[in-house]
Automatic annotation (TrEMBL):
Keywords: Antiviral defense, Magnesium, Metal-binding, Nucleotidyltransferase, RNA-directed DNA polymerase, Transferase. Its EC number is 2.7.7.49. Residues 1-242 form the Reverse transcriptase domain. It comes from the Bacteria. GO terms for molecular function: RNA-directed DNA polymerase activity. PANTHER family: NUCLEAR INTRON MATURASE 1, MITOCHONDRIAL-RELATED, PROTEIN YKFC. It is an enzyme of class 2 (transferase). This is RNA-directed DNA polymerase. Belongs to the bacterial reverse transcriptase family. The keyword Metal-binding applies.
Length: 335
């Protein structure tokens, strides 16, 4: 019994000794990487600020996280995601994703169910063999062990976002190629797929290609989040309004934020405890369109004139890009 426990404990360790090839290459010191934690991953629920929905997060222990971060920065980042992959890449955001569909008349949007956990070693292995040709099969095995939890990408590891983008590369390429030929536009923001086209017929055709591609990857779409929108609908992409002069947060969001600011001005004492939430909404808005005049008025009404861009940039809106990757095209992979 004690032996079985010890064996299990050893298996769960993310220590330096479990990754001989990687630890040598990554230059992580033995002291900082050796791990005696009870669990490799800590699982908890996190409520999204925007939607209020709870997501299950599996956060790696600090030692494992250090190794994953080094792996991301030194090896994984040398391979770039597709141009149509809009999430987790520096310089791309929900706003630049929405901008590619600005003023489209017909939009198809869909959402891949539990995106990171649906990516398994079976997706990662061929991707590594194809994109990281310098890696030996032993190194690939070590990497896959380092970045997966029970054979799946954990929601909460710094390596998961970029790896998910790389696994989706061929799918992105196929969808983009197909859309190009039909004068349509394809983008993917993490699990959110958006396609805009000139007519409904083209869009239906492309939607079937997308569905087929996802089936081939053993991924499922969320039917509740799948929409075909035509000229008469108010259209949003990654939660942003794409029908107006500029890309903006939705009217509902803007009205709610403006109402909260008015309340904060009128009842500063009562609203004090909601202040950080209101500032979070303003910061989100700022991230979408920093030059918005309606926003400038609200920021000044809140007495936030002294807020520098830096403070706003460090806000909640930016935190979702934790896994952002500075990939360097054509860089030297240290193998
Ligand atoms: Zn640890």
């Amino acid at each position: 019994m004690a032996d079985a426990f010890e064996a299990m404990r050893k298996r769960m360790r993310a220590g330096f000794d479990d990754f001989p090839i990687l630890s040598a290459v990554l230059g992580v010191s033995k002291e900082s990487a050796s791990c005696d934690c009870q669990k490799r991953y800590n699982t908890f629920e996190l409520k999204s600020r925007g939607t209020g929905k709870a997501r299950a997060i599996s956060a790696p222990c600090q030692h494992l996280k250090l190794m994953q971060r080094a792996l991301l920065d030194r090896i994984l980042c040398h391979v770039a995601p597709h141009d149509a992959a809009m999430a987790f890449v520096r310089g791309r955001s929900i706003a630049s994703n929405a901008r590619r569909h600005h003023r489209a008349t017909h939009i198809f949007t869909t959402d891949i169910c539990s995106f990171f956990p649906s990516i398994t070693a079976a997706h990662l292995s061929p991707m590594f063999e194809k994109r990281f040709r310098h890696l030996s099969s032993d190194a690939i095995k070590e990497i896959i062990d380092l970045v997966t939890d029970e054979g799946r990408l954990p929601q909460g590891a710094p390596t998961s976002p970029h790896l998910a983008n790389l696994v989706m590369f061929d799918f992105d390429e196929r969808c983009s190629w197909f859309c190009d030929r039909l004068g349509a536009v394809y983008t993917r923001y993490a699990d959110d797929i958006s396609i805009s086209a000139k007519d409904a017929e083209t869009l239906r055709h492309i939607a079937s290609v997308v569905a087929e591609g996802l089936r081939a990857l053993a991924m499922q779409v969320n039917p509740e989040k799948t929409r075909h929108l035509g000229p008469l609908h108010r259209k949003t992409v990654t939660g942003l309004d794409i029908g107006g002069e500029r890309i903006r947060p939705t009217r509902t969001f803007r009205k709610k934020t403006a109402a909260l600011v008015r309340m904060s001005v009128r009842y500063p004492d009562k609203m004090q405890r909601h202040r950080s939430r209101v500032c979070g909404y303003l910061a989100f808005w700022h991230g979408v369109d920093p030059a918005d005049r309606e926003l400038a008025k609200l920021v000044s009404a809140m007495g936030l004139d002294d807020w520098t861009e830096r403070i706003l940039a460090a806000s909640a809106f930016e935190r979702q890009f934790d896994g952002t990757c500075d990939y360097t095209l054509g860089g030297q992979i240290p193998f």
